[in-house]
Amino acid sequence: MANVSVAAEWQLLYNRYYRKPEIYQMRWKHVDLSRNKVACASFGGPIAVIRDDSKIVQLYAESALRKLRIFNSAGVLLSETVWKHPGGRLIGMSWSDDQTLISIVQDGTIYRYNIHAELIQPNVTMGKECFEQNVVECVFWGNGVVCLTEGGQLFCISDFKTMKPYKLADVPGLTEDDMLQPTCLAVREPQYTMSGNVEVLVAVGDEIYVVDEDEAQSIRFDEPSGEDSEMQNDDYGNLIGPVQKMIVSPNGKFLTLFTHDGRVVVVGMESKQIAIDYSCESALPPQQMAWCGMDSVLLYWDEDLMMVGPLGDPVHYFYDEPVILIPECDGVRILSNTSLEFLQRVPDSTESIFKIGSTSPAALLYDALDHFDRRSAKADENLRLIRSSLSEAVESCIDAAGHEFDVTRQRALLRAASYGQAFSSNFQRDRVQETCRTLRVLNAVRDPDIGIPLSIQQYKLLTPVVLISRLINAHSHLLALRISEYLGMNKEVVIMHWACAKITASASTPDAHLLEILLDKLQLCRGISYAAVATHADNCGRRKLAAMLVEHEPRSTKQVPLLLSIGEEDTALVKATESGDTDLVYLVIFHIWQKRPPLEFFAMIQGRILARDLFVAYARCHKQEFLKDFFLSTGQIHEVAFLLWKESWDMGKNPMASKGSPLHGPRIKLIEKASNLFSQTKEHTFESKAAEEHAKLLRIQHELEASTKQAIFVDSSINDTIRTCIVLRNNRAAAKVKSEFKVSDKRWYWLKTFALATIKDWEALEKFSKEKRPPTGFRPFVEACIDADEKAEALKYIPKLSDLVERGEAYARIGMAKEAADAAAQANDGGELLERFRKTFSQNAIFDTLKMPFQGVS
Questions:
Q1: Helix, strand or coil for residue 679?
Q2: Which of 444, 452, 446, 489 is nearest to 473 (CA)?
Q3: Could you tell me the CA-to-CA distances from 415 to 360, 381, 397, 444 in Å, in that order?
Q4: Suppose 784 and one of 5, 481, 656, 757 were both cysteines; which one would form an S-S bond, judging by CB atoms 3.0 to 4.6 Å apart?
Q5: Are 267 and 310 in contact (CB under 8 A)?
Q6: CB environment 264-283: b (16+ within 10 A), e (fewer)
Q7: How far is it, in rounded angstroms, from Cα 701 to Cα 658?
Q8: Which phi and psi (to 5°) does residue 304 adopt?
C-alpha cells in the first residue's frame, strides 16, 4: 500500500485534508518579522523588509539608518537601499502585479521601487487632501490601493500603470464625527463587481458600508442559511454587531468577518447568506486573516494559527515565532523567521494515492510499482484489479506528481504513471512528457538561489511568458534562456534584456570588447533587433558602441531612425538610399535639413541621386526659394531660370493679375531674369530666346489692355493676340504684333481671314482678298465662310481655288453636288474623289439627282 508517512503529515478539517510542507529554510540572518514591515509578492515573488518605524525596537549590530531590503522567497538578499524619504511614517507597502514595490508614506506620497531596490521616477502623490489630512491606513490589491485619511475620507488608485488617484464617496457620519472611526477596511476588486469599479467595504460601528466613486450604501447580512433558519430570527443581522476585521475571498463572492464577540462569519456578497459561523475562544481580533484557496479561512494570533472550514472543528497550528500569511490562488504561504511553508488543501489525486487505507486504482498502481521494484508477483495482481480503471489511475499519478514539491516523490509518481501507461492502450502518451517538462521548469525556479516556489496551479495561472519576464527582471538571464529554449519559446526577449543589462553593468569595458561579447550572444537569435540594443547603449552614453551595434541591424526601418538619433546623418543617408525606401529617405532629408547649414546640406544630398531627386521633387512644390539656392550652389543656372519662369506663370494665376496690372511688371522682370540666366549657358539658347519674346509679348499685351481697358490679352498666344486685335478693329496693333514677332504672311492671312469672319465683316474680308494675291490662296477665305455658315460668301471664293480637289470638297461641304461632281471629274486623281462623293451623297435624297451626272461622267 501507499506510504503511510505521507498522509501522517496531513490535517483533517471536517472531510478535507490539508498539508503544510516546508518549502525553504530561510537563508537570511538576523531578520525578525515582528520588528519589520514586510511586503510579500504573490506567485512566489520577492519579499521586501524594512524596519517598522511605528515600533520601538532594540538595535543590535546594525546601523540606525533604515534600509529597504529585498529578498527572494528563500531569504536570499537580492538588493538593498537606504530609506531616506521625507513624508512621515511608512503606512504600507505592497507588490504590484508587475513586481513593482509600492510604498505609501503618511503625507500620501507614493515611492516605487523595482526588484533591484532602484527608485522609479517620478514619485506620485495621492493628492492635496491626503497631504493635509495624513494617511492612516491603506489596503492594497493586485494593481491598486485604497487609502483612508484621518478625516475619514477614502482615496483610490485603481491602476498602478496610470497612477491617477481619485476620491471615493464619503461614508455617512464618518466625516462629520471626528470620534467615529472605521474599525477595518476591505476591498472588492473591480473584476468582481457589477459596476466594474473598485468597491471598498468599511466597517463603522454596527454598520458595513459598500463605497464606490458615486455612493456609499449600508449592507446587512440578515438572511440565515437553510441549516441555521430554525435557530435564527429575522433580526439576525443585528447579532453580527461591530466588525473588528474582514477580508474578501479571492473570487470576490464571500466576505469573512471577525465580530466584536469573537465569531468568524463568512457571508455571500450577493446572497447575503451565512456560509460559516464559528465562535472563537477569544474575542481578541486576529493579527492576520487570509483565505486558504476557496475552502477555508486562516486566522493568526500570537503563536496560534487557526483554520476554519464550513463544518467541523477548526485546525490549529502553533508557532513560537511570528509569521506572515501570503495568500495564493491555491493556498497560503506561511513565512516565519526561519522557514517558508505552503499550506494547501491536499489535491484529490494525492489524497486518493496516499490516504491511509486507500484502495483507489491510483493507490493500487503506485503500490504495484513498489512490488515491481521488489520483484514481487503482487504487482501483476494489482494491475489485474485496476485493468478497467488503469487510464484513470495513470492520470491521477501524473496529476499528483504535478502537485508535489518533493522531487523524489515526483519521480516515484511519474514512474508509477509510466509503469501503468505501458499496460494502457487508450491513454494519451504525451501527458507524462508534458508533466515532466512542466516539473523541470518548476524545480528549476524553486531552487533557493532563484527562490520562486510556484505550485503547478500557480504556474498555469501565471503562464510561462510572465515567469520568464520575472526571471529576466531579476537578472536570471541564463535560466530564462534555458527555459525559453526548453519550452520552444522566443529567446529574443531574454537575449535583448541581457544585452541591455550587460551594457548598463559594463561602464568600464571598452566598446570594441563589449561589442564582441554582445554579438556572441545576439547572433544566437535570428531577427533580433540590434537597433533596440543600440538605443539602450545610446541612452547609457555609449554612442560609439551604439553606432557599431546598429551596423548589424538588417532592417532599414529600424536602423535609419536610430542612426539619426545618435548623430550619424551621413551613414543614415547612405542606408536610406540603399534601401530604396522613399519614406526613409525623406525622413533623413528632413532631419538633416533642420540640423545642418544649407551649404552642408546641399553637399550631402548632391552625391546621392535618389535623395537629390526626392528633395528637388518636394522643394519644387513647397520650397522653391530654397531650391533656387540649391541649384545656384550646384551650378545649375538653367534650373533656376526654369523656376523663375514657372514662378512668373504662378504669379499670373493670382487673382490680382486679372484686375489691372500691379503684378505684370514683376512677372516681366522674372521672365527677363530667366532669359538672362538661360543666355549664360550654350545649351539653352532656345529657352533664352523664348523667354525674351515671352517678356516682350507680355509687355505688348499689358499695353493693349491699358489702351483698350479690357483684361483679355495677357497670357494669350501671339495668334490669339493678333486675332483679338482684329476683332476689336485695332488693325494697327495687330500689324505691330505681326511686325514685332515676325509673323509670316501665310499665318497673317489665316488669322485675319478668320478674325473678319468672326465679326462677319464680309465687306472687309472681300476687300482684304483683293489687296494682293493671297500667299495662302483662297482656301482660308473659303474655310472661314463655311465655318461661319455663309454659303453665299463662300461661293465668292470657291471658284478661285486653283486646286480642283479643294474646289470639289468645298462645293460638297456647302451641298452643291453637281458642281462638286464637275470639279471631281476634272481632278486628276484617278476618280478617287468622285468615288468618295458617290458614297457620301448616296445616303442623301439628292443622290437621285446626282445619279445621272455621275453615270455620264463615268
A1: helix
A2: 452
A3: 18, 18, 9, 20
A4: 757
A5: no
A6: bbbbbbeeeebbbbbebeee
A7: 13
A8: -130, 125
- Grid coordinates representing 276 are 460559516
Q: What contacts 24+ positions apart, CB below 8 Å, involve 719-727?
A: 719/747, 719/751, 721/697, 722/748, 722/751, 722/752, 722/755, 723/751, 723/754, 723/755, 723/758, 726/751, 726/752, 726/755, 726/756, 727/755, 727/758, 727/759
Residue ranges in the chain modelled with pLDDT below 50? 1-2, 223, 225-238, 657-663, 844-858
**Cell representation of residue 255:** 466576505
CB 110 within 8 A of CB 163: yes
Q: E strands of 235-378, at which residues?
A: 243-248, 254-259, 263-268, 274-279, 288-292, 296-301, 304-308, 315-318, 323-328, 331-336, 339-345
Backbone angles phi, psi at 336, to 5 degrees: -125, -175
CB 452 within 8 A of CB 44: yes
Chain-centroid distance of CA 233 in Å reads 58
Q: What is the largest CA-CA distance in the chain?
A: 144
**Cβ neighbour number for residue 166 with a 10 Å cutoff:** 12
Rounded (10°) CA dihedral 689, 692, 694, 695: 180
Peptide bond into 361 cis (omega under 30): no
> 565-622: per-residue pLDDT in tens?
778 777 888 888 878 888 888 888 778 777 888 787 777 777 777 877 787 777 777 7
DSSP, residue by residue, 378-424: HHHHHHHHTGGGHHHHHHHHHHHHHT---HHHHHHHHHHHHHHHTT-
Distance CA 451, CA 74 (A): 5
Q: What is the DSSP letter of 844?
A: S
What is the dihedral sign for C-alpha 731, 735, 737, 743? positive
CA distances in angstroms from 243 to 148, 228, 252, 256, listed in the order given? 17, 21, 19, 10
* Tens-digit pLDDT profile for residues 776-787: 888 888 888 888
Residue 339, φ and ψ in degrees, nearest 5? -155, 165
3-state secondary structure at position 840: helix
DSSP annotation string for 476-514: -HHHHHHHHHHHT---HHHHHHHHHHHHHH-TTS-HHHH
Q: For residue 288, is it left (φ>0), alpha (ψ between -120 and 50) or beta? A: beta
Estimate the share of the chain in helix, then strand, then coil, as percent rounded to the nearest 5. Answer: 45, 20, 35
